[in-house]
Every structure is written in structure tokens, then in C-alpha cells.
Automatic annotation (TrEMBL):
InterPro entries: Homeodomain-like_sf, HTH-type_TetR-like_transc_reg, HTH_TetR, Repressor_TetR_C, Tet_transcr_reg_TetR-rel_C_sf. It comes from the Bacteria. Residues 37-56 bind DNA. Residues 14-74 form the HTH tetR-type domain. Keywords: DNA-binding, Transcription, Transcription regulation. The keyword Hydrolase does not apply. This is TetR/AcrR family transcriptional regulator. The keyword DNA-binding applies. It comes from Streptomyces yanii. It holds the Pfam family TetR_C_1.
């Protein structure tokens, strides 16, 4: 089938960055991250490859659109009266839910540059969330750095190791089988509480040090 014939299969004007990002997510989750190409996404959308370039500049931009799609699925608006500890728990839990829902795509968000679009404005919103919940600007940035590093590292390994963990769960409970479960999502909540406790100690120490 020629490119012109492919393009005729999709109504003019029906493409957008949002529809392209959604199609790219479907391709990744079905076929794996290495399958993310302009051609594969065009096939998913039943359009010509050149049609995508009216909305997406290149492969890097396409990955950015996918990251934006993942961020849009995170509901991390401020909650009135929420403590920074509970905001942190909600943040970490929401990331775990996203990783479980999009295990093959999640690492695009987890490993994306935090100072570039679309992650930079997302991180600024998270910092604002922690400030609204009671932290100083300095402490919010410290907390966000720790939270992001923990969630990104843990969850990327967790979703990559899901088959190995499933095999370990079916095996006899020897020590090496338990070690295979170190990055099981069940352990994520425990680690989250350790992170929060450590941040509490650090911030309390800072406040004590500032006392006259």
C-alpha cells in the first residue's frame, strides 16, 4: 500500500499530539519499548508516516509526547489540609499505580531529564504540592529529589523484574528466592515509610538548628 493510500484511511485533521501519544503508548505496552518508531505508530493510527511529522518533530519529540501522556495520568493536585507526609505517600503510591498500569512505558518517564519538557513543569507542580502541604521551598526540593530517586529506581527495576519475581513466588521459600523479591511492589510501601521517616528526622534537625 502506498503512503497516499495509507493517508486516505484516516480522516484529515483527526491526528493530534494527544492521539499520537495515546497510540504510541498502546504500541509500547503491546510490543515493548524498542518497538516505538514513527512507522509503528503510524501503522497503529492507520495513517502515513509523513502525517505524524505535522504534529511530532522527531523520535525524541515522540518520546516526550509519551512522557506527557503518562504525566497526564497522574492526579497529584493539592488536597486541602493534607500534611507533607501524606502528600508524599500519595505521590509515591500514584507513581506505583502508574508503573503497574504502564510497565513497559514507565521508564520513559522515570529516566527522563527532570529539567526539560515535559518533566520540568511536572516537577515544579510536585514541589508546589509539598510547599502547600507545609514544607519550606528548600525542604520541598530536598524531599522531591529523594522521592523521585527512590520511586524511579525502585519502580523501573520492579516492572522489569516482574517475570523473575513471579517465578520466585512459585518456588520454594529458600533465601535466594526471597532475594529475588527485593524489588517486589509489596516492599515499595515499606521503603516509602522509611523515606518519610528519614525526611522527618532531617527536617526536624534543620528546625532545631535554626532555633536561637
Amino acid at each position: 500500500m502506498t503512503t497516499s493510500q495509507e493517508t486516505q484511511r484516516r480522516p484529515r485533521g483527526s491526528l493530534s499530539r494527544q492521539s499520537i501519544g495515546a497510540a504510541a503508548l498502546r504500541v509500547i505496552e503491546r510490543d515493548g519499548l524498542d518497538s516505538l518508531t514513527m512507522r509503528r505508530v503510524a501503522g497503529e493510527l492507520s495513517c502515513g508516516v509523513m502525517s505524524l511529522y505535522s504534529h511530532v518533530a522527531d523520535a525524541d519529540d515522540l518520546r516526550g509526547v509519551v512522557v506527557g501522556q503518562l504525566i497526564d495520568r497522574l492526579d497529584l493536585r493539592p488536597h486541602e489540609g493534607e500534611s507533607w507526609q501524606d502528600a508524599t505517600r500519595r505521590m509515591l503510591s500514584t507513581y506505583a499505580d502508574l508503573a503497574a498500569s504502564f510497565p513497559r512505558s514507565f521508564e520513559l518517564l522515570a529516566l527522563a531529564d527532570a529539567d526539560q519538557w515535559p518533566v520540568a513543569p511536572h516537577m515544579e507542580r510536585l514541589a508546589d504540592l509539598l510547599v502547600t502541604a507545609g514544607l519550606t521551598e528548600e525542604d520541598a526540593l530536598t524531599a522531591l529529589s529523594v522521592i523521585d530517586a527512590y520511586a524511579s529506581g525502585f519502580l523501573v527495576i520492579a516492572v522489569r523484574n516482574r517475570p523473575a519475581v513471579a517465578s520466585a513466588e512459585r518456588a520454594a521459600p529458600h533465601r535466594h528466592d526471597q532475594l529475588a523479591r527485593l524489588h517486589h511492589l509489596d516492599s515499595y510501601g515499606t521503603g516509602s515509610e522509611v523515606i518519610i521517616a528519614g525526611l522527618e528526622q532531617r527536617f526536624e534537625g534543620h528546625r532545631a538548628g535554626r532555633k536561637p
